[in-house]
Every structure is written in structure tokens, then in C-alpha cells.
Design goal:
about 750 residues; 5 domains; 7-stranded mixed β-sheet; 35 strands; alpha+beta; globular; 8-stranded antiparallel β-sheet; Immunoglobulin-like; Neutral Protease, domain 2; binds zinc ion
Amino acid sequence: MLWKVIAVLGALLIFPARPASGSDFKKAVENLADYSFDSAAVAHVSDFELNLPYGMANFKEGKFYFCAFIDDEPTAMYFDGIGTFYYYPPDEIEIQQVRRFYDEDTLNLHFDRAYFAFADIKAWFDSLPKTESFNKPKYRTRTSWEQMIGIPDNAFKYDLPLNIVQARFDGQKRFLWADFADGKFNHTVYHFDPYDNEEISLFKYSPEFISPQLVSSYPADEPDWKKEIKRRCDLFRYDFDLELSTYARSDISCKMSLEVEQDSLKTVDFAFPDNYKIDRIWGDVLDSLSFFKKKDRPGLMIELSRVFHKGDTVTVGLDYRTNLFYHFIRFGVVQKRLTRWYPYQGYRQLSDYSMRYSLDKGYRFISVGDLVSDSVEGGRLIFHYATADPVAYISLNYGVFDSIEVKNPELPITIYILPGINDSPIFGNPNLEKTSEDVSGSFQFYREHFAPYRFKRLDVAAMAVMYGQGSPGVVHLPYIVFSRSLEGYDDKLRAHEVAHQWWGHIVNPATYRDVWLSEGLAEYSAAMYIEQGKKRPDIMWQVLNQWHKDIVESGKAYGKRSVGYKAGALFLGERLKSELSQGDFIVLIYSKAAYMLHMLRYEIETVPKRPGAFMEMLSEFAHRNYNKLTFTDDFIDLAREYLGERTDSFFDQWLFDWRIPKIKKGHEISKDGTAILNLEVKEVDADFASYYPVRFDFNNRTSIMVHYLVSSGENSFEFSPPPGKEITKVYFNPNKDILEK
Ligand SMILES: [Zn+2]
């Protein structure tokens, strides 16, 4: 399958890497991979219509060339002629995305050629009269055809033949790849992938982009965003044996245990980094070479020894080699991939892990999991780690570190720092102290307010890169936060990464759409730590203003790579990384999601005057979803208990709609001292409604905050001051409780 998230970043393909091992499966894939156009069956069509979920193709006039036959059925078709492809985006979020990519709400696309690949179109094929026998196609037709069949592999890094054979084997007849092209360079690909949670994907591939862009993605049937994640098996356990080499390739042996969740499973597939060298596979596999992996292409498919059924356990192992580390003269070893250096499936899965590491002496070593044993064998350090409960992924780090223990009443926290950071014997390093204070302070703050911590220790390790990563029980921090302490930035970043121990590793976002549950919650938790834990509401105010600026003003964050809120709704999740404005993943999934949580806090805490209600809700959220895969709907269901009938309106406008309101404000004080307020709410849905705070200052230096429920359009309110008081000033939304332009 073509994993959504990977597709966005642009990579996944599986392909035979070696000579056929004699299996029918492999032979079928190979036959399909180099089928000939010369054996095509030709049909002349006019006004031929093909209905698809959310789409329709009208082949106005032209020829179908059917080829790539398996068992006398074609699995590919090239269309030479003219036609129109329509795509009707199934909801408002998708409409906005189609508009962003194509400047129209419903896709109405002229094409002058098309390439289809499918698992089964026997009925369609049989229904068409083959009007003429095959004639050698024109040069133009042939070159155009060759270019189009190369696109899945070259541009999408996707092995179409392999996936077709797999779909045929599994009886997944609806599998479809349809590329509609206008000229040589403008392609729109409509993909029905039966293995994806969201079967329908629409991609745009044209010269303005480096890689194909995911425009739209949706389930083929009525969406239930909280359904069980569709998967073929549950990868519940990993056993690793790693010979780590600092300067050369490391040898990795990885055994995976999977519980089968569907009948007739003959293959298992994984996301797997490109350029990793697999030596052999073992376990319940056909033979040591019955895997599909092409050099320079990510992804791995393994053919099993037999057909497995629901409830069976399958064990597959692979031995592979790769250079795991970068080297920096000053900073030592850094992992090239912090987390995805082994095969994995889907967006998130929770698995048990056991790891045996062997490495050169002279290094400090950090890994996810509990240390079971350590020893020295043959001059090398041997560490055995295991996780107590399933986790989302593992990461490791090693190098020449200094370390400090942070005093914490709850559990040991160790901070590993790069040498030279703490080298002033007289002055110490104030930034190291601040790092230690933020790590320990935010840890205490979350533990007290959210839920108990999951792991036995917390290791915090510096990395010579410019990003951070919160792994289970391990926080990787960029070295910059040890040598700098910008308030509202570095303190937030430290607290953000620590917050992932709760939002990310206690509550695990289930799908690519739910990623705000880890990033948005981590970001807002970090801000609350600054506000309440560090008691610096002034810095929180700066943070809120920075979020506002990034969301509202195009190009403020990440230069031209950001258009702010206009990029789309929060529920697009990882899809906000599109090439149109890659910076908006952070602007929206971190900053706007945090701002949404700020507004939620305003609505459930400030408006009804229930201090602490928001924190109570977050704690409940962590407890209810402890160590589970969690969906956006789980959050909304809980919020409903606090927000009541405001719930749907609130999330519809801030999570599922991309727009934010422009509010025109005016007031006048009448002769009797009454304030008349006029608020016009514009640029949002007609159903928009929100509480909106207005502060009235009085002549005796007191003031009052009133929360008005405003709706889209004109709103008018009257406010009479208490007896003896005179209104001197009126402030609208003075604390930025509501996000507006
Ligand atoms: Zn994060």
C-alpha cells in the first residue's frame, strides 16, 4: 500500500531485488513488470462513462489498448483520445484542498491520454466490443504510453505491478490506479487502494512540484473517523540484535511477530528505508530471498511460506545492514534516522520491543526501554533493553557525553550533554541549569496535572541537530537549547518535548489526521507550564501573540513556505506538509491546534467560571486513553461533557473548517450611560457562533468582563453599568481568548 504520510513526503516502493525464487507470486509480479504493449487488445470507444467513488471519467472519443494480461484478463489499459475526468470532493475539507491545487471546487479536468491499472476489470473488458485487431501504435502513442507506465515507479516510488498481484491474490477487485494526463507533464492520479483506511486518493503531479502531491484522501464508504484502523495484521512484537558500528555499516537482525487479522494472508508489507541492504529473511517465509525490495526505494514486501488466516501468528525476521550514523567532529555520533530505522507498518502501531545492542567501548548509551542487563563481551559493550508495555517506536543515542542527574522526587532524570557545554568551572552553564529546570519542572507539572508517568526513568539527550524528538522515556533535545535560552522559545521547546511523554506516548494519535493530539497538546501543555508552572503569564502572552501572528499573517512563519490558516483545516493532519506550503504543518498542527485548545479552555473554564475545568478535562483524557491509540473523536466526545451543545459548533469551526473570523467592532455610549455594542462577524460559515469577551472599564478604576455569544453576521448588545459607575473604556477580546484576524 502507498502510505499516506510517506506519499506526502514522496516515497514508497517495493520491487523484486533478486532473480525469481520460483514462486508463482513472484513470477506474476515479474510478468506484470515488463509486459508488452504489442499484445494489446484494442477497443474504439466514444462517450464511454466510468463511475468511480466521488468521481467519473468520460472517455469522449479514442481507443483503449488493453494489455498486461494475467489469466487472459488485462490488468492495464492505455487510452489514446480525449475525455474529461470529474472529481467531486466529498466534504468541505476536501473541497478546500481541491480548490488550493486546481482553483476549482469540483475537478473538471480535460485529458488527452490516460493510463489505468487494475486488479480486476473482467466485466468491463468483456462488455466492450474489440472493434479492430491490433495495429502497431504510432510512435507518439508508444512513447507517451512508456512515459505513463513509468510514473508510479519513477515519481511515486510505488510498485504498481506488485500491488496489483497482491490485490488479485487477496480478491480485492476494486484496486485501481488511474492516471489522467493533459499533455506529457500534467498528471492527475486517482487511486483506489483497498488496503488503506482511506481508500480513495487523488494526486497532482505536474512540473510545479518536485514530487506528486496528495490533493484529496477519503474513505470509499461513509466515513467513520473512529473506526478500527484497517490493517491486515497486528505487529505486536519486535526482537532486535544490533551490532552497532560507529563508522561503518551496522548489522541488524530484526524479528517481528504479527497476529493475522484477515483471512488468506500470503504477503506482509512494511515501510522500510531505502538504501538499506537486506541479506536474508527467515521465519515463516517462502525462502530466504522471497522478499521484494528495490534499491533506492523504500518499502519491503515479504512472501510467506503459506497462506495464513485470522488469528494465526506469523514470525518473520530479516538481517540487514546500513550506516546508521552521521559524524560531527565536535559533536560525535548522530543517528541518521532517529526512529524509523527498522520495518514498520501504518501510521502508528504499539508493539513490545526487546533489543540486544553491541557497541564499541568508550561511549555512553541511551535507548528506549528498561535496561535488563549490561556486560562486556569480546571487548564490546553489550546492553539488553526491553519495554515493559507496548510503545509506538524506539530510538537510541550514543556518544561521548557528560551527564548530570536532576534532583527529582519521583524518578531519576539524567541529562546527557555534549562535552564542552559545561566547561566553566566557576560559572557553570546557566543554560544547562535552565534546561535542567525546564525538564524537571515541566515533568512535575504534567505528572501532577495530567496522569502518572509511564516509564521507570527519563533520559534527556543532546543531539547535534536542530530538531527535538520525544521518544518513550527518552527526550532528544537539539544542542542549541543547552547553549541558548530564549524565553518563549527554548523553554517552550524543552517543555514541548517532555510533554510528548503524555501526548504521544500515553495518548497515541491513531491516524495521520489525529497528529494534532500529540503536537497541539504538547505545544499547549508547554505554554501552560510556562504560565502556571513557571508562573510567567507574561511569557505565555508572548507565545500566544506569536501563534496568532504565524496563523493569521501569510509568510510570517517559514517565509514563503507558509500561508498560515489558509493552508487548510487542522483535521488534514500530516497532509499539511504539502509542497504548496510545507511550513504550515507546524503553523497549524502546533500553533493553531494550541490556539484552539486555548479557546476551548476559555469556553469551558473562563465563560462558565469553572477554574480548573480544562486541566481536569486533559487529565481525564490522559486517563481514559492511557496507552491506547486515540482518535480525534475521543477528544471531542470528552469535550462534549464540558461544552455541551456548543461542542459541534466549536469543533466544526476550529478543527474541521480552515477559516477564521474577521470581526468588525464598534460601540457607543448613550446618554443614559448604556453601552451599545455592534459586532459584525465575517468570512466564516453561516453557522459560526462563539463566545466573545468584552471588558468594560469604569471610572472608579474597576472593570468587568462580559462574554457575549456572537454569531456570523451582525450582532448587537447593550450593556448597562452598575449603579453609580460610568463606562470609561471598552476593550474587545483583550486577552486574545478568541482567534480572529
Ligand atoms: Zn512535538
